């Protein structure tokens, strides 16, 4: 470190459409695939830091997964005599030099040198979007493609899905919903919130004549951290309940089986319907306080001929 040179650490929030990327993490070496982190670090080269800037990502997302708000920390060391960038200038500079239109830096904060974007997160929320009434792929508006999981079914038994989600709330061994390759040392996680609800405004991209057929739904999950592909596996099981292929009580049995290779829990919902919605920290951005465990949501009519909470 040069005399008088100061290294400043920042927390940055950023968003991206994951369609074009091999996940958020940087892809190193001479490969055709590329991650969101590659573009962020390329933009950071223009900051002229004495030491190359590396992003430490809070939450890794797979290829095709989107983020409304992910987070990372980075260190910028300016040359001697130059003050650290203000968070506002850093945000503007990164956005100016980003070469991919599907990535945007939202906000930055100065943080202590010991701050760690992954370890310090107090809450992570994922959103999964579903569409029903899509009997053929060409019936989904082009603006919604790669933004939701299009189901052929005309409706979902939402009451049964909510009942099933209750079994997932709390602290459990979630290894039944963990894919191989997870770096986690323990499969125990605490799921604070699991909700199933209709999108309040449906989709702005659906034509009036299609609005009766197409409906959009949101599943949200909140925890301090998740296992590898846990959210997509839980989503797949809850969709199976909504379609009548599973009863709500069977979700509890799947959870307690601790078997990731079972018939239903081994299925993984498509990546393109998943969004990382929020990563929260104490004192930066929105402060993450205790979240009540609740599924008190508006009533949704069951599919015709279904009893609330039952399968087909």
UniProtKB/TrEMBL annotation:
Annotated substrate binding sites: 126
InterPro entries membership: PsdUridine_synth_cat_dom_sf, PsdUridine_synth_TruA, PsdUridine_synth_TruA_a/b_dom, PsdUridine_synth_TruA_C, TruA/RsuA/RluB/E/F_N
GO MF term set: RNA binding; tRNA pseudouridine(38-40) synthase activity
Keywords annotated in UniProt: Isomerase, tRNA processing
Catalytic activity: uridine(38/39/40) in tRNA = pseudouridine(38/39/40) in tRNA; a uridine in tRNA = a pseudouridine in tRNA
Keyword Repressor: no
Record: active site: 62 (nucleophile)
EC top class, as a word: isomerase
Pseudouridine synthase I TruA alpha/beta domain sequence ranges: 15-117, 164-282
Domain of life: Eukaryota
The EC number(s) this enzyme carries: 5.4.99.12
Matches recorded under CDD domains: PseudoU_synth_EcTruA
GO BP term, pick one: tRNA pseudouridine synthesis
Protein family membership: Belongs to the tRNA pseudouridine synthase TruA family.
HAMAP family reported for this sequence: TruA
Name of the protein: tRNA pseudouridine synthase
Classification lineage: Eukaryota, Metazoa, Chordata, Craniata, Vertebrata
């Amino acid at each position: 470190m040069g005399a008088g040179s100061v290294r400043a650490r920042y927390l940055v929030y950023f968003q991206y459409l994951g369609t074009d990327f091999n996940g958020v993490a940087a892809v190193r070496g001479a490969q055709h695939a590329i991650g969101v982190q590659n573009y962020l670090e390329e933009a950071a080269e223009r900051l002229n830091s004495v030491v190359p800037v590396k992003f430490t990502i809070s939450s890794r997302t797979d290829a095709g997964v989107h983020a409304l708000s992910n987070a990372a920390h980075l260190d910028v060391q300016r040359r001697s005599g130059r003050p650290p960038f203000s968070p506002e200038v850093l945000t503007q500079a990164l956005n100016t030099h980003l070469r991919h239109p599907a990535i945007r830096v939202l906000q930055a904060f100065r943080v202590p040198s010991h701050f760690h974007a992954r370890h310090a997160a107090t809450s992570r929320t994922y959103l999964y979007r579903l569409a029903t009434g899509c009997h053929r792929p060409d019936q989904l508006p082009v603006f919604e493609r790669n933004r939701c999981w299009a189901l052929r079914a005309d409706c979902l038994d939402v009451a049964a899905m909510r009942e099933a989600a209750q079994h997932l709330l709390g602290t459990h061994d979630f290894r039944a919903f963990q894919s191989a390759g997870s770096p986690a040392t323990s499969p125990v996680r605490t799921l604070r919130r699991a909700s199933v609800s209709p999108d309040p405004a449906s989709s702005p991209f659906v034509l009036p004549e299609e609005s009766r057929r197409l409906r959009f739904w949101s599943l949200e999950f909140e925890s301090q951290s998740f296992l590898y592909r846990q959210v997509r596996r839980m989503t797949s099981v809850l969709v199976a309940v909504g379609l009548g292929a599973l009863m709500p009580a069977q979700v509890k049995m799947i959870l307690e089986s601790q078997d990731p290779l079972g018939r239903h829990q081994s299925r993984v919902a498509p990546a393109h319907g998943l969004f990382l919605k929020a990563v929260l920290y104490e004192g930066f951005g929105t402060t993450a306080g205790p979240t009540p465990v609740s599924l008190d949501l508006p009533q949704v009519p069951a599919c015709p001929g279904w009893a609330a909470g039952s399968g087909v």
